[in-house]
């Protein structure tokens, strides 16, 4: 895994002034351990937060910065922090890092944890100070074995240096941090399913309210933030709100920088730290280098498998939540995938929906039964055995599994690419309808779950 430097053809060097997340990265891709991290101004922000800032001032600074969650939902981080109770008598609170990076085509958090583990620890330490949490957990995707090894080593280094544990930096503040590896479920990316899994329960989302800030891990106030989100905190504290906001491009409503990437049959697949507001075309052409010779861009997803497909003409959209919303989908994780002209969209969607169907927790009926239904129909269309009305049935499922129709956001994310694929490439779906098939009314075709 590599991270390409911040500029076309690697000509622009990363710096602390422009690349708060990645300027400390080593050119050889090896992890930055404590001595090197501190030599690169590591933990200076934590020392400032502990020595010079009241806890509420840290929360207000993060709120003023405009930092939003980097896991895909984009909820304002400072607002989320502000939901934690003010009652000083509640002395047991938790900070959870959502490191269960299961979104297909997304590996940004993995890079940060493997190569800059102390950046995450510093971000969690400052956040814990602000939120008055005495214990933290990094809930890590089980397959990230290298990240687990590096994080555990970094935690031990921080403990030995007095940066974790009792009386941190002589402040009287205690914070313990643990790395917890999950069992490998996509649904654990939803914060309450993550909490259930951490408690040893089945990874089902919880009903909200109450929200985790009121009733979280073991019934105590809990804040859950994404890896990349927490890694932004040290730079905001160290260099200030105005500087952080200045990093984004004009027109962007999201502040700071974002780890963005492109995969697929592009010339230079990779991951880059870029200011919010760059266009998809810059990301695709200047950084990813465009399509490999012999391939043509057919469509692309802007931020993981749960975002809708866009056409080449949408590449001029700015890469921030509102900019991507203007062309009909979501920013998601910001790691795009290029689909080339050799790919059949029915086969691609069948593969995606098989994944989402398998990863459903099974709690609510629309998701539990609707996603396998979509897989069955897509498999038939892929094999040229579709029946008249199947496309309308798929579109009906897109509506029935949309936002507000299911217990959590798993199903809406699963069907968003399906709806967009039919919208832009309906002829490929129509090609799989058997010419002699009888007309079947929408949503009337039977399904055998598991067939």
TrEMBL record:
Domain NADH-ubiquinone oxidoreductase 51kDa subunit iron-sulphur binding per the UniProt entry, residue ranges: 346-391
User: PROSITE patterns of this UniProt entry?
Assistant: COMPLEX1_51K_1, COMPLEX1_51K_2
Q: Which reaction does it catalyse?
A: a quinone + NADH + 5 H(+)(in) = a quinol + NAD(+) + 4 H(+)(out)
Q: Which GO terms describe its molecular function?
A: 4 iron, 4 sulfur cluster binding; FMN binding; metal ion binding; NAD binding; NADH dehydrogenase (ubiquinone) activity; oxidoreductase activity; quinone binding
Keyword list (alphabetical) reads: 4Fe-4S, Flavoprotein, FMN, Iron, Iron-sulfur, Metal-binding, NAD, Oxidoreductase, Quinone, Translocase
Domain of life (superkingdom): Bacteria
SMART domains, A to Z:
NADH_4Fe-4S
One Pfam family assigned to this protein is NADH_4Fe-4S
Q: Which cofactor does it need?
A: [4Fe-4S] cluster; FMN
Q: What class of enzyme is it?
A: translocase
Q: Which InterPro entries match?
A: NADH-UbQ_OxRdtase_51kDa_CS (IPR001949), NADH-UbQ_OxRdtase_suF (IPR011537), Nuo51_FMN-bd (IPR011538), Nuo51_FMN-bd_sf (IPR037225), Nuop51_4Fe4S-bd (IPR019575), Nuop51_4Fe4S-bd_sf (IPR037207)
SUPFAM superfamilies xrefs: Nqo1 FMN-binding domain-like (SSF142019), Nqo1 middle domain-like (SSF142984), Nqo1C-terminal domain-like (SSF140490)
Q: Might you give the EC number(s) for this enzyme?
A: 7.1.1.-
User: Would you identify the family this protein belongs to, as annotated?
Assistant: Belongs to the complex I 51 kDa subunit family.
**What does the UniProt function comment say about this protein?**
NDH-1 shuttles electrons from NADH, via FMN and iron-sulfur (Fe-S) centers, to quinones in the respiratory chain.
Subunit note: Composed of 13 different subunits. Subunits NuoCD, E, F, and G constitute the peripheral sector of the complex.
Q: What is this protein called?
A: NADH-quinone oxidoreductase subunit F
């Amino acid at each position: 895994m590599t991270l390409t430097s911040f500029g076309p053809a690697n000509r622009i060097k990363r710096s602390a002034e422009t690349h708060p997340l990645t300027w400390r990265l080593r050119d050889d891709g090896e992890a930055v351990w404590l001595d090197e991290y501190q030599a690169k101004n590591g933990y200076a922000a934590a020392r400032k937060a502990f020595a010079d800032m009241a806890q509420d001032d840290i929360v207000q600074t993060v709120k003023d910065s405009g930092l939003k969650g980097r896991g895909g939902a984009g909820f304002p981080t400072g607002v989320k922090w502000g939901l934690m109770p003010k009652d000083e008598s509640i002395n047991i609170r938790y900070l959870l890092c959502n490191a269960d990076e299961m979104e297909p085509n997304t590996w940004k958090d993995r890079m940060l944890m493997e190569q800059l583990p102390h950046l995450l620890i510093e971000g969690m330490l400052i956040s814990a100070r602000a939120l008055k949490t005495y214990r933290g957990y990094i809930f890590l995707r089980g397959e990230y074995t290298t990240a687990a090894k590096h994080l555990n080593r970094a935690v031990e280094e921080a403990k030995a240096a007095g940066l974790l544990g009792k009386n941190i930096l002589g402040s009287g503040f205690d914070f313990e941090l643990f790395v917890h590896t999950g069992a490998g479920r996509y649904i654990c990316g939803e914060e309450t399913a993550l909490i259930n899994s951490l408690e040893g329960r089945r990874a089902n989302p919880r009903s909200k309210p109450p929200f985790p800030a009121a009733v979280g891990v073991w019934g105590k106030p809990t804040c859950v933030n994404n890896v990349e989100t927490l890694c932004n905190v040290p730079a905001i504290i160290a260099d200030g709100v105005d500087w952080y906001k200045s990093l984004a491009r004009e027109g962007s409503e999201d502040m700071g920088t974002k780890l963005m990437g492109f995969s697929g049959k592009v010339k230079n697949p990779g991951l880059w730290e870029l200011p919010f507001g760059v266009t998809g075309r810059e990301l695709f052409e200047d950084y990813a280098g465009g399509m490999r010779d012999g391939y043509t861009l057919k469509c692309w997803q802007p931020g993981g498998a749960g975002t809708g497909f866009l056409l080449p003409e949408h590449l001029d959209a700015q890469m921030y939540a509102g900019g991507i919303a203007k062309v009909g989908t979501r920013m998601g994780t910001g790691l795009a995938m290029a689909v080339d002209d050799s790919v059949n969209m029915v086969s691609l969607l069948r593969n995606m929906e098989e994944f989402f169907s398998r990863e459903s927790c099974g709690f609510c009926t629309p998701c539990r039964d609707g996603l396998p239904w979509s897989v069955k129909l897509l498999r038939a269309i892929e094999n040229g055995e579709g029946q008249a009305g199947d496309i309308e049935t798929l579109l009906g499922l897109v509506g029935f599994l949309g936002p507000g129709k299911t217990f959590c956001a798993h199903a809406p994310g699963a069907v968003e690419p399906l709806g967009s694929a039919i919208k832009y490439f309906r002829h490929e779906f129509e090609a799989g309808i058997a010419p002699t098939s009888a007309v079947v009314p929408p949503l009337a075709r039977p399904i055998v779950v598991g067939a």
